[in-house]
Amino acid sequence: MARSPFPPSTPGFWRSPVRGPWFTSVLGAVLLGGITVLFVTGLLSYAAYNPDLSPVNDKTPDKGLLGFYLFSWPTDPHWLYRLNQGVHVTLGLTLVPVLLAKLWSVVPRLFALPPVRSVAHALERLSLLLLVGGALFEFVTGVLNVQLDYVFPGSFYPLHFYGAWVFFAAFLAHVALKLPLALRNLRRMRDEPETPGESAAASLIPPRPDPPSVSRRGALWFVGGGSLLLFVTSAGRSFDGPLRQTALLTPHGGPEPGSGPAAFQINKTAASRGIRPAETTEDAWRLTVTGPAGTVRLARAQLLRLPLHSSSLPIACVEGWSTSDQWWRGVRLTDLAALVGYDDPDRAPDVLVESLQRTGAFRMAALRANQVRDPRSLLALDVNGEPLTPDHGFPARIIVPAAPGVLNTKWVTRMDFGDL
Ligand SMILES: Nc1nc2c(c(=O)[nH]1)N[C@H]1C(S)=C(S)[C@@H](COP(=O)(O)O)O[C@H]1N2
Ligand SMILES: [Mo]
């Protein structure tokens, strides 16, 4: 390959005729909409954990000002978290090619000299560092979490949450600075020749372009095609049946769930969480329920003699995969609260739920009073007409409408009712 006589700091080094203000502005407009949706669904996803039920749901709940918007996550509609998280994760994956193309389209700017021309320019470059660094950080941590291969130190939630605020602050500054210019560029005809010049926008245009091998429009189709490919190979993970088989690029939850009534996605198996079959037998397992009126211990057979109710509810994981509604049967959380002193279901309090699992994430989770009070919230004993399987949480698991999967604790052994 012939060496360019121009160093990368000069416009002559950059030869692609696709680069120019129009291409950059179209991608920017797509990202403006897409990243705004990612930010809002991300903040909602965080609120859905009820992280202020500390220190159980979030080990580092002290989000200070950034947690200003937290609220008690509702239980209606029952597919709320499924939709929110499906959109967040699927859209995030779909935007990866757009983000990469946008970065490619402006990469000559990274090498521009002098690196800093003025205080204002220094501030602009700093904001770009936060913008590009923030974008890469959020996309990389998100994709790693979706792929169940989380390699960063510390917990995913605080990293992705703080990263989102840094990124979005820089994103807002960038939009405020660039939107007028981008709108002007977009109003110009797509195929009007762009000529290099002195203006900031025009500096993206190569002064010595190579002959085009693809039109600017063709390059956009290429990016869009990449996004479409990612979309059709990941959206299926929000559905059961043959659609899930189309989710080639992303795991479908845990191991393949096999067949039968319990054949829906499993996140963590009983064996992987160290749940021994001997701990879950009729003789060994007891549920301990505590409240102001004292402590009650119940075997599974005793729970089965309490009034049993059914709810049709999905499992929807933070990783974006979800199942369609499953038919759960078990004891209402309000009925368990009534056993320990909360006779009025409308005044049932929060609850701290503990599983048999001794170590690892998600061995405990807390639920808000509004979740406990919903008559569809159950300590489930059966699913789809059969006793729970070990991997779905036998002898008993929590299921709550509209809640993130992680709050639906499996292998429950203890429930403490009271204000948290
Ligand atoms: N005790 C315990 N409960 C748990 C988990 C866990 O690891 N341990 N995983 C949670 C997560 S992250 C999800 S998404 C759901 C998945 O439920 P399923 O495996 O029945 O589909 O269970 C939740 N309950
Ligand atoms: Mo999950």
From TrEMBL:
Transmembrane regions listed in the UniProt entry: 21-49, 87-107, 128-148, 160-181, 218-236
Keywords: Membrane, Transmembrane, Transmembrane helix
Residues covered by the Oxidoreductase molybdopterin-binding domain: 280-417
InterPro entries: Di-haem_cyt_TM (IPR016174), Mopterin_OxRdtase_euk (IPR008335), OxRdtase_Mopterin-bd_dom (IPR000572), OxRdtase_Mopterin-bd_sf (IPR036374)
Pfam families in the record: Oxidored_molyb
Region annotation Disordered: where it falls in the sequence: 192-213
Protein name: Molybdopterin-dependent oxidoreductase
UniProt source species: Streptomyces broussonetiae
